[in-house]
Please model this.
Amino acid sequence: MSNYYPVLVLIGLLISVISAYRKAPFYNYIGIQITIYGLLKSAALIMPPLPAQVIVMYVAMSLFAFLIYFSIREETFRAFLEPMRSVLADRDKKLQRVVLVFIAIPLFAGYITYAKVRPSYKPPVTGRIVHPEPPQEIDFRGKTISILGLENPLRKETDRLKDHLEAGKKIYYQNCFFCHGDDLDGRGLFEQAFNPPPLPFRGTDTIAQLPESFVFWRIAKGWKALPPGSHPWDSAMPSFEDFLTEDQIWQVILFIYEATGNKPRTWE
Amino acid sequence: MKAGVLKLIFVVLAINLFFTYIGLYFLPQSESRPPKEIKLQKGITQEELISLGEKIVFGKGQCMVCHPMKEETGMRAPAIATIGSTIQKEAEKKGISAEEYLFIALVAPSKHVAEGYDDIMPPVHKPPTSLNDGELIAVAAYLQSRRGKVTVSYPDSVGFLKTVISKEGGE
Amino acid sequence: MAGKDIKKGVIKGILKLSLILGCGFVLLFLLKSIVPGPTEDGYRFFPLIGSRVWVWIIAQLHLNFAAFVLGVPIFAVTMEFLGWRRTDERLDRIAYDFTKLFTLAYTLTAIMGAILMVSLPLLYPRFIGHMMKILGPTWWAYILFMYGEVFVCYYYFYSWHRMKERKGLHVLIGVLLNVMGGILLLVTSSWVGYMTTPGGVSETGELLNRWHAINTYMWIPLSLHRLFANVVFGAGIAAAYAAFRFITAATEDEKAYYDWMGYTSAMISIGFSLILPGIGYLLGVEIYSFNEQMGIQLMGGFYAWLWVMQAILIGAILFLVNYYLWISLNKMPGGERYFRYVKFLFIVVFLGYIIWLTPHSVALSLEEARRIGSYHPALGKLGVMASKNTAVIVSYMATFISFAIFRMSNKEPTVSWARAGHILRALIIVVSSVVVLGIGVYSYMVPSVTRVRVLSPIQFGIFFLAILALYILDSRMYKNARIIGEPRWGKMPERSQYALIGITVTFTWLMGMMGYMRSGGRMYWHVYGIMKDTSPDAYLPAHGVAAVIVTTVTLLFFFMIASVFWSVMKLEKFSEKRRSD
Model:
């Protein structure tokens, strides 16, 4: 969709240039507004899209500013008002007048009202803490595990690392890949079904930012252990302590770091 | 002239309505209510004490105004996430118990300013924050729980807290 | 007969003040015995809108009028002085018109003050009791100086024509009037200063040292900030008055005069507003050194979004001022030569405004949060202080250039080095802008302490140096310049006058909002850290509620000030009629 916005920019520019050439500031104004709106929207092509609220603000600002600009010189301002004046006052423009006053404006007002009262099913917006503080210690199937400063015990077994990785791979493709994807990019079969989508493990901003202890806690406890600030209801992560053993979890952690080339974060 | 005056009234009204619109629909709407005083029950468990302390640190105590949660550049005060271990280390250096160090840090913060920071913290048992004894102990418990060992409890620590206040926090 | 006039005028003023004060005291006494006693913790409740909103509105209205009657005399006397030294009739006339305005506004100021005087002890008896205990004597001094002020003010106004031959003495009376005004300002600021940054009392609120309770952290910076803001505001109201008279003017002569008055007042207003950020900074520093917590709370806590609002308001003011100056080129013979520069100035001011109101964090819909994440790379960079400081300095620079262009647009330099001068001016503008922008970009890379304490002051310093250099250069270059034609005062399209009114309305709104923030910085305290507010109103309302109240105050104020304008016009008609009889 956003691919078409540059076309809008071109159309706007065209209107603006032609009307500047023909000295018709009113249409120039419209052309400039279209250009600016198109530019703000096509920003999405080179960076994350601008939030709607910011676009509204910028457009309101440019509507106001260019109105001011075209009213600086007396001649320009008179020419700017001319189309509006002629539609409203000229005898031979009766048809346009009727269309504008009795059809266009009521339709516009109707549309605005419709857009305002149309029911929408979007959930309300609230901030969500993505990486909450994990608890000090957790209860893992009756065993107390201290999360603070916890490190992956399997990393010390350097001679058996290969086996652990192989096991971890199997566990991943038996349990995790449905959501987190066979390429560990978060684009599994169920990706489209969840909102927010499952986290990708590739890239430098998810597990690369976390110590393994945090990952262990999230896998073991799932959505249930998230504090209210992190919206447990917005997560579909199961508690894998019901399905996997402690070692199996550590194995799969080894695998996801190894397969994505990420290093776990350490505190000091 | 009449038309001019009418237009003028319109301009004044329109500008005011525009600003009101921004205030009502553009800015976030929330009220800031004065905090309530919390009275602790005897024999409160450690978990309850810690979670209460967390609430005070994030709310009434307004600690987050200066203290960041995690280490970051340009912070004005030590990070909360690891403050428990910081307290233990600093207390060992000074040769006092972690509990004493912590209480002094709350009621007479100028006495122990962490290295590299300005002396900006107000004593929190005095107005405007005015935490009571129970609240102070809850905060202390929460801070210790951040990578440290929790040694305070309610109401056992009240006596010690009172001596620290009378010794250090009176001024 | 003129001597009698003065006497009559002054007696009338004193009587009026005594009557208002007397009514206030009697009303207070009567109401106290009629209404039921206060609640246990010392409150009575105002019906319907609640005590807080009532006092808020009345206090802000009183403050608006007080700012007007204290601010205008400062430049009225300056104008009179200039008119006297340069024997310029027009300056004397404008000074007299200013004086007419504030003399008439006194009555409304006093009435609002009296309502406040009745309301506060009735609604907040415990709080006012405390204030009287700590700062009681200053209140009686305040009444004394108020009488002094009214006496001098009415004398100054009614003796204007009679003392035409003794101008020096009359100017001196005007200076005395300003001294009185300054003292009044200091006294009232000390009350507010004590409420916000109290001193000189024990923790339980017992008086230890009255001088320390007066001379608090906030006292002097707040007084200075108010003093200059009063001039800005007073001049703004005078500009609005001129615009009003311009629109309703019947003759070309009147139009020309009020056009000129509007221009002069607006330039005084904007000129003085250049100093305000600096004094505001000083005020902020004092609040921080009183209590770090309160400082952060005001700057970035609950009130963070109102600073965005402040950016919108100040940006609008700058934009409208530039607009007014650009339209003014229409009336300058030779002004059309400069329209090609306006295009660039417009782009600069437009971009500056856009950057300035870009918020750092925005409310995202869920859909957007999914795609953008919580941090937007481009907006995140524009939304911080580094870019905003730079943007506002560049916009101020553009405003100054608009002003300079207007002043030189009807002249042609005759000095031999005119060409070199033009190049030098372009160089100053380009170099200073580039340096300010460069520092702005650089300040992203340094810790915030360096930015606030070193780089921002340097940016402001460069700005002030640049406008000083431009001013000196222009005044040398355009000495004995060939004048293409006198400005055609009065030949202004009406919409320029709405811009003037817009500036003043925005200013009044801004003042209401900043006053609310200053007061709200105390959170749920009457006297910060000393006396808690335990009434049901002890919370900070949502920004929308505050906006509605600020709008109410602004509209009420404009309604009342319009009645002052109207009575000035009535008075003029009356005296004209008497003269013709």
Remarks:
- The mean pLDDT of chain C is 87.
- DSSP finds 19 helices and four strands in chain C.
